[in-house]
Amino acid sequence: MGCEEPKQGKQVSAYTGPIEEINDVRLLYSEQALLKVKLTTPRQLRYANDDRKYPKPVSIIFYGPAGEEVTTLRSDSGRYNKAKDLYTVMGNVVVVNKQKQEKLLTPELNWNPVTKKVFTDKRVVVLSQMTGEKLYGLGLDANQDFSQYSIRKPTGVFNVEAGQGF
Questions:
Q1: 155 touches 123 (CB < 8 A)
Q2: Among residues 152, 128, 126, which one has the least CA distance to residue 138?
Q3: pLDDT at residue 15 greater than cutoff 50
Q4: What value does the mean pLDDT take over residues 96-102?
Q5: Residues 83, 111: contact at Cβ < 8 Å?
Q6: CB–CB of 38/27 below 8 Å?
Q7: At CB < 8 A and 24+ separation, what contacts does 65-69 make?
Q8: What 3-state DSSP class applies to 135?
Q9: How many degrees, rounded to 5, is the angle at CA 18 between CA 144 and CA 44?
C-alpha cells in the first residue's frame, strides 16, 4: 500500500444538456382571459436555467381583440431565453398577416411577451398580396400581431399615386 501511486480523481464535468423533454407542445398566452398567442411545436427541451429550445418547426398564431386569427408565423426552429424573457424563431421564418394580406420573410425573428414587440436585425422581405409590392430591408420592429411595423433600412419598389408628394 505504501508503494502504490496515489489514484487520480476523475474530472467530471457538469451536465449541460436538457433536464426535460416534452413532445407535442402547445403554449397559450392570454390577457384578461382572452387568448392572444398560441405556440405549437413537436418538441421542447428545457435546461437547468429554464431556457428552452424548440428543435423542430414552430408555429405561432397571434389573435385579435375579438379572438380572431390575425397573424400566423412558421419557422424551422426556435428558443426561449429565460433571463431576457425573449423568444427567437430561426430558419425560413414566414409571417402572414391575414387582415392586411401581407407576408414577411426573414431568417430570424424575436418576440418579447412583456413588451408585446417583435423585432429582428436580419434581412426582411415584405410581400403585399393586394398591391404586389415587395419591400426589402435590414431590420424590422413590429407589434406582436404585425398590424403595425417599420422596416429599419428599407429598399424596394413602391407604388405611388400620381399627385401624391413626399
A1: no
A2: 152
A3: yes
A4: 90
A5: no
A6: yes
A7: 65/34, 67/34, 67/35, 69/98
A8: strand
A9: 40
DSSP string, 62-118: EE-TTS-EEEEEEESEEEEETTTTEEEEEEEEEEEETTTTEEEEEEEEEEETTTTEE
| Nearest Cα to Cα of residue 130 among 94, 95, 102, 98 | 102
* Residue 17: DSSP 8-state: S
No. of H helices and E strands in the chain?
A: 0, 11
Instruction: Say if CB 137 and CB 161 are below 8 A apart.
Output: no
Cell numbers linked to 129: 398580396
Residue with cell 420573410: 105
**CA 127, chain centre distance (Å):** 19
Cα separation, 20 vs 16, whole angstroms:
12
* Residue type (1 letter), 165: G
Q: At CB < 8 A and 24+ separation, what contacts does 120-124 make?
A: 121/152, 124/151
pLDDT cut 70: percent of the chain above it? 88
Give the whole-angstrom CA distance, residue 90 versus residue 74.
9
